[in-house]
Write a structure and sequence with these properties.
With about 375 residues, the chain is an alpha/beta fold. The chain has two domains: about 180 residues, glycerate kinase, domain 1 (3-Layer(aba) Sandwich), CATH 3.40.1480; about 200 residues, Rossmann fold (3-Layer(aba) Sandwich), CATH 3.40.50. It has a six-stranded parallel beta sheet with strand order 3-2-1-4-5-6, with helices on both faces. A six-stranded mixed beta sheet has the order 7-8-12-9-10-11, sandwiched between helices. The termini are close together. The relative contact order is 0.14.
Length: about 375
């Protein structure tokens, strides 16, 4: 198998992983479950069912919510495709990854929406990654600019998503279940998780997870589900698939080097899979890039002597940090080809300017928004 064929196979693995966490199918399956169907059945009380969807997977999750509702509200990142029009569905677009006035407006409208339902009603809440930015209303006495500065300092230090979300929650008027407390209605929350441990209260900082009896919370999509789907895809094609049990985490360049060392030990016909979310401590200097690009570039430096091995590191949402790509490919020839173009891998890593590096090589992996978000994946193959 030549380099182009390896690349196509890795792209197919990525698409198989995405299919394994298709929000439409996952939501439809969850709504067929008895517990969830009963929680949303308010006909005996004469109640109403509303639908609220927020996050990068909001459009796809709404598409999977095949139930009748008179009123619904969806909040998506600007630039994402909206869900198909449905009677009674209001659609808002807000800012991501940084909140702005549109995020404030979306939070205010969401609070009004929740408050309009009563104790006989139920609201189906469809929550996915990206929610923290899309719904942003600082707690009383705090401005948006101050909140953003405090969070930015923590992010630039290289803190993980759980630590960042804890700070976001402490500074918010809608996160940590506070949005859910605006209503007396029963809440059924379905979650597509992008966080370590897949705790629903950590996804999007848990705006609807209020901890009340009668509420139902269910995780419908995880990073691990995508890895399992990719592994099945590989085995169906006669390959041996091994998934690293420990979730990707820590500094991206360290995780990339570690993953590459494991990939270099693959036998012919084997693939290696891992998932999670690393961090990047930006410091003062930063160009355009992201954690998957940094992982791939750090891996390329290790793979220089590993022939017939290629890897793809990419975000499941189709956007890696400030870059225009989802991630990047790397193999044993990456560093040598870069040198012929006058590119310095170590310098690109130090300046966190990895998009230009991989774009010059033609190795930037561009997908556009995928309509889901379950953190990142790394795939390696020796063929």
């Amino acid at each position: 198998m030549n380099g182009d064929e390896r690349r196509r196979f890795l792209e197919d693995l990525y698409r198989a992983a995405l299919a394994g966490v298709d929000p439409r199918q996952r939501v439809a399956q969850a709504l067929a479950a008895r517990q969830i169907a009963r929680a949303l059945d308010v006909r005996a009380e004469g109640g109403e069912v509303g639908v609220f969807a927020v996050g990068k997977a909001a459009a796809a999750m709404i598409a999977g919510a095949r139930l009748r509702f008179r009123r619904g509200l969806a909040v998506l990142p600007r630039g994402f495709s909206p869900p198909a029009p449905r009677r009674g569905l209001e659609i808002l677009f807000a800012s991501h990854p940084e909140p702005d006035s549109s995020s404030l407006a979306a939070a205010r409208r969401s609070r009004e929406f929740f408050a309009s339902f009563g104790r006989r009603d139920a609201i189906l809440c469809l929550v996915s990654g990206g929610t923290s930015s899309l719904l942003c209303q600082p707690r009383a006495g705090l401005t948006l600019s101050e909140k953003k500065r405090r969070i930015a300092r923590l992010v630039r230090s290289g803190a993980g998503i759980l630590e960042v979300n804890r700070l976001r929650t402490s500074l918010s008027a809608v996160k940590g279940g506070r949005l859910g407390r605006e209503t007396r209605a029963r809440l059924v929350t379905l979650v597509v998780s992008d966080v370590p441990g897949d705790r629903p209260s950590a996804v999007g900082s848990g705006p609807t997870i209020r901890g009340r009896a009668g509420d139902v919370v269910h995780v419908v999509g995880t990073n691990r589900m995508g890895l399992e789907a990719a592994a099945r895809f590989a085995r169906e094609r006669g390959l041996s698939a091994r998934t690293i049990s420990r979730r990707l985490g820590g500094e991206a360049r360290d995780a990339g080097a570690s993953f590459a060392r494991a990939a270099a030990r693959l036998d012919p016909g084997q693939i290696l899979l891992a998932g999670g979310e690393t961090t990047v401590a930006l410091g003062r200097r930063s160009g355009r890039g992201g954690r998957s690009l940094e992982l791939a570039l750090a891996a390329a430096r290790v793979l220089a002597s590993a022939r017939e091995v290629m890897l793809l590191a990419a975000g499941s949402d189709g956007r890696d940090g400030s870059s225009a790509g989802a991630g990047a490919f790397a193999d044993s020839g990456t560093i040598a080809r870069a040198r012929t173009l006058g590119l310095d891998a170590a310098d690109a890593l130090d300046r966190h300017d990895t998009q230009a590096f991989f774009a010059a090589l033609g190795d930037l992996f561009v997908t556009g928004p995928t309509g889901t978000n379950v953190a990142d994946w790394a795939f390696a193959v020796r063929l």
